[in-house]
Amino acid sequence: MRKSLPLLAAACGTAALVVTSLFVGGYDISLRTLLEDPDARDMFLISRVPRTLALVLSAAAMGVSGVIMQMLVQNRFVEPTTTGASEWAALGILLLALFAPAAPVLVRMGAASAFAFAGTMAFLGVLRRVWLRSSVVVPLVGIMLGSVVSALTLYLASGADLLQMLTTWRSGGFSGIVRGQYEPLWVVGLIVAGLYLAADRFTIAGLGKDVATNLGLRHERILLIGVSMVALATGVTTIVVGFVPFLGLVVPNLVSLLRGDDVRANLPWVVIGSVALMTLCDLIGRVVVFPLEIPASVILGAVGATLFIGMILRQRRTLHG
Questions:
Q1: In 3D, which of 60, 57, 61 has the Cα closest to residue 49?
Q2: Which of 101, 185, 256, 282 lies deepest, with the highest CB count within 10 Å?
């Protein structure tokens, strides 16, 4: 029981942030207005609740996706935005907007996920053919591949006058999410549950093909399943929310630093930490320029990039110290 108290306390703190998010915004909503004002209740149910649920689900998905990618690649510095998966998902969305602009949301989700899957497999293919002396170079390879894809996406968008649409996808904000738009994110909630149940298999797969095979695990199949689930989570999150940078990189590393490398035991902490960080960044973005709003991805990108650089410098000192 005592071992679960820190997790319970962290969950309560995160829940407090989530509840705070429900009552912060340009439209003044309080418990009293919810009881007395029908318009406030409508605003709460149409906008605030969907926005907060989207925030929670996308944060959990990207945090857990980061853990799975790090296990499969055997590198602590990878996650969907440092492997190019998010950039490939954006390319898929753009191509669909060019050739099938009236496509339903399920088709857009499928296109984004398929391109994210292709991008992740391309990244893994490059890693298999390039000998890298430093683990820090691995995410740099992914970032470079993603930058090439991003440049192509920008070129196509500028030629088709879709730069504004592309910028909206990249914003990673929650201000435009209302009831009827966030529901696809329940799919990533199921993915998070599936990844948790299969965490032990992904851990074994992360030990390498030879070790996994000796333990009776089909390494290629587990790798394919893991990449597919991460690609689906990335594609759906990109469609509904936009880019969520560095979340799957920073939180798993901080949890591992504080608690060790027990993946299954760490996943609840990763989910709670990801939701807490995303909610905090979103609240900061809604408060600092109130009543305007800074997208959560901007705040998260600044925080995540700073922590990312700090982790690289820390590893360098460890290696040379």
A1: 57
A2: 282
C-alpha–C-alpha distance, residues 11 and 20, integer Å: 14
Alpha-carbon distance of 220 to 237, in angstroms, equals 26
- Domain coordinates in residue numbering, the chain: 2-320
Question: For residue 184, what is the DSSP state?
Answer: G
CB proximity list for 121: less than 8 A, separation 6 or greater: 227
Question: In terms of Cα–Cα distance, which of 241, 248, 306 is closest to 277?
Answer: 248
| pLDDT tens string 28-81 | 777 777 777 788 888 888 888 888 888 888 899 888 888 888 887 777 778 887
What amino acid is encoded at 311 in this protein? Answer: M
* Residue 273: burial class (beta carbons within 10 Å; 0-12, 13-18, 19+): buried
**Token pair in block for residue 88:** 């490939």
Residue carrying the six token digits 């950039």? 87
Instruction: Assess if CATH 2.160.20.10 describes domain 2-320.
Output: no
Using CB atoms within 10 Å of the CB of residue 153, give its burial: 0 to 12 exposed, 13 to 18 middle, 19+ buried: buried
34/69 Cα distance (integer angstroms): 42
Q: How many Å apart are CA 121 and CA 262, to the nearest integer? A: 26
Closest CA to 262 of 1, 5, 7, 2: 7
Burial 4-31 (b: 16+ CB within 10 A, else e): eeeeeeebeebeebbeebeeebeeebee
Any residues with CB less than 8 A from the CB of 130 and at least 6 apart, and which?
A: 141
Residue 294 pLDDT more than 60?
Answer: yes
Residues in the chain: 321
Residue 78 CB: number of other CB atoms within 10 A? 26
Q: Model-level pTM?
A: 0.85
Q: What is the DSSP letter of 4?
A: G
Name the burial class of residue 129, with classes exposed (0-12), middle (13-18) and buried (19+) by CB atoms within 10 angstroms of its CB: exposed
Q: Say if residues 255 and 269 touch (Cβ distance below 8 Å).
A: yes
